[in-house]
């Protein structure tokens, strides 16, 4: 039984890896709720993401978090929802740890550009607009990027917007450089220590973008 379960786990991870090396998409399997099975999955996940911890105590602590996240994913995926959850490189972090490490904008609102709102994109009565648009289907969204632990969400969101509007206008989806904004847009933005899209758009305009 243990050997069969191991190969079932391995097959599942192999199929998930073919879809996306960074995404272990776990749908459902009742056997995977057992501690031994979750530990085997944990070891495979560690190898996939090249994780290493300082000592067995830390590894066990991370396993406890991993198990909680896995069971949450398992329960979620049993429901009739429009999306499925999966295990990624953050599966050994608690919700609080993830927020403390990867979330939280650092903004100096006193310096924010003050402008009157533009009516350009405001809805006007009589306009025949679609109920929704999925720009992914129209090829205007680049593949997902990872900012790591650098607080540069302002650069990533700016670049994503520019990539999208460029594709809509020209038909070409070109992946642009967030790093250029992080390194060069330093008048108001602060690299990995935070910034605002407003300043980044101004930087692009002022530099011929």
UniProtKB/TrEMBL annotation:
The keyword Hydrolase applies. Belongs to the peptidase C1 family. Gene3D superfamilies: Cysteine proteinases. SUPFAM superfamilies: Cysteine proteinases. GO terms for molecular function: cysteine-type peptidase activity. Residues 42-98 form the Cathepsin propeptide inhibitor domain. Pfam families: Inhibitor_I29, Peptidase_C1. It comes from the Eukaryota. One of its GO terms (biological process) is proteolysis. InterPro entries: Papain-like_cys_pep_sf, Pept_cys_AS, Peptidase_C1A, Peptidase_C1A_C, Peptidase_C1A_papain-like, Prot_inhib_I29. Residues 129-209 form the Peptidase C1A papain C-terminal domain. It comes from Pinus sylvestris (Scotch pine). Keywords: Disulfide bond, Hydrolase, Protease, Signal. Residues 1-19 form the signal peptide. This is Cystein protease. SMART domains: Inhibitor_I29 (SM00848), Pept_C1 (SM00645).
């Amino acid at each position: 039984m243990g050997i069969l379960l191991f190969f079932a786990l391995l097959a599942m991870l192999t199929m998930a890896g073919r879809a996306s090396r960074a995404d272990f998409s776990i749908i459902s399997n009742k056997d995977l709720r057992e501690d031994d099975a979750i530990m085997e999955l944990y070891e495979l996940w560690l190898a996939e993401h090249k994780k290493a911890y300082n000592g067995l105590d830390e590894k066990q602590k991370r396993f406890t978090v991993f198990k909680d996240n896995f069971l949450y994913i398992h329960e979620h995926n049993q429901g009739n929802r429009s999306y499925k959850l999966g295990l990624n490189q953050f599966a050994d972090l608690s919700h609080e740890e993830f927020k403390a490490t990867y979330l939280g904008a650092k903004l100096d609102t006193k310096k924010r550009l003050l402008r009157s709102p533009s009516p350009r994109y405001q809805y006007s009565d009589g306009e025949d607009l679609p109920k929704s648009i999925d720009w992914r289907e129209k090829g205007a969204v680049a593949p997902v990027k990872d900012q790591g632990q650098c607080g540069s969400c302002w650069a990533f969101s700016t670049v994503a917007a520019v990539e999208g509007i460029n594709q809509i206008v020209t038909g070409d989806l070109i992946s642009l450089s967030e790093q250029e904004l992080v390194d060069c847009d330093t008048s108001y933005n602060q690299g990995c220590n935070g910034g605002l899209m407003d300043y980044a758009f101004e930087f692009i305009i002022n530099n011929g973008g």
